[in-house]
Amino acid sequence: LLGALTLGVAGIAAISLAVAGILVMNVMLVSVTQRTGEIGLLKALGATGSTIRQVFLTEAAMLSLAGALVGFALGHLGAAVIRQLYPTFPAYPPDWAVLAGLGTALVTGILFGVLPARRAAQLDPVQALAKR
Length: 132
What we know:
The protein is mostly helical. The protein is built from 5 helices and no strands. The chain is elongated. The chain starts with a helix and ends with a helix.
């Protein structure tokens, strides 16, 4: 019974990660689309594809880390509420779980940010500036 429950929770977590990753990818794709002129200007000024890719991967990492920190704060708030309602229940998240959650969010954001970053790095500067 406990194994089935663990698998069920793991399945829900996997679906949540996929949804969050797709959300990060959509936000980053919109960002690339809106900043096409800026990307073209950077490339025209000599920025390499690698530099552009790093900029967008850093943005994806910051976006996912911001979401992870909000989730971290909400989790601690929920644990504090549980401790207030049930003082004998030790509702403290283990340190490994906090680090694993933050790390997983960061890795998910970076993995799902690769496609938009590659798309931004492959833009032709002349066409990108023409769309501006």
